Amino acid sequence: MRLKKARLEPQEADVWTDEVKELMRPFTEAGSEFNIFKTLTHHPDLMRRWMVFANHILFKSTIPLRERELVILRIGYLCNAGYEWGQHVQVARKAGMSDAEILSTKSGPDTPGISELDKLLMQATDELHADAHISDATWSALESGHLDKKQLMDLVFTVGQYNLVSMALNTLGVQPDDGLPDWDLNPQYKT
User: Fold this and answer.
1) What pLDDT score was predicted for residue 179?
2) Sequence ranges of the domains in the chain
3) How far apart are CA 18 and CA 69, in angstroms?
4) Rounded to an integer, what distance in angstroms lies between the CA atom of residue 141 and that of residue 117?
5) What is the DSSP letter of 176?
6) What global pTM score does this model have?
7) Using one digit for the tens of pLDDT, what is the confidence trace for 92-118?
8) Which of 2, 104, 134, 173 has a 20 to 30 A CA-CA distance from 183?
9) Number of other residues whose CB lies within 10 A of the CB of residue 75
């Protein structure tokens, strides 16, 4: 974690307004009252509008879950966003990714033995992070038998979404939820 203490403490349910309770209802019902959401309760209008876009990326994207998690883990690692990394390690595991596949997102597109698609997805993520642009070579390779036009668009917006989220988490100092894995996949944060 970049900051050892939150700049904005997550708000607990006992201080939530009716508006915040309604925003948090889906998370409360799912048992996912994570620190990111409780931190965003400081700005309900922003939270409400951001959630529309975030829900598209997480639940309506045309990119298959495994590949989407690969990209999210890569951008989280590139942004040194420990909170993001830990949350999405858990999602990646539920999506069937092995620990070796998860760890490949740290070493990136040059990881020996990864598939061509994994290499290209991480290369595109690296290029977007470094230059805010996917090169012609990477775009053409992705477009040639791997991703359709909607998936290419969802790729760009997924990287952008999680770059933004990583910046917010790092800057606001959102602290890990209990049980999140660290960079080496160890459950460093205890319940």
Assistant:
1) 87
2) 13-59, 65-172
3) 33
4) 9
5) P
6) 0.94
7) 999 999 999 999 999 999 999 999 999
8) 134
9) 27
The full length of the chain comes to 191
What torsion do the CA atoms of 50, 125, 107, 136 make, to the nearest 10 degrees?
180
Q: What value, to the nearest 5°, has the Cα angle with vertex 154 and ends 151 and 159?
A: 130
Can you state the angle between helices 44-55 and 18-30, rounded to 10 degrees? Answer: 40
pLDDT at residue 191, rounded to an integer: 42
Question: What is the architecture of the domain spanning 65-172?
Answer: Up-down Bundle (1.20)
Long-range contacts formed by 5-8: CB under 8 A, 24+ apart = 5/173, 5/175, 6/35, 6/39, 6/172, 6/173, 6/174, 6/175, 7/171, 7/172, 7/173, 8/39, 8/42, 8/172, 8/173
Does the pLDDT at position 189 exceed 70? no
Residue 153 corresponds to which tokens in the numbers above? 């668009």
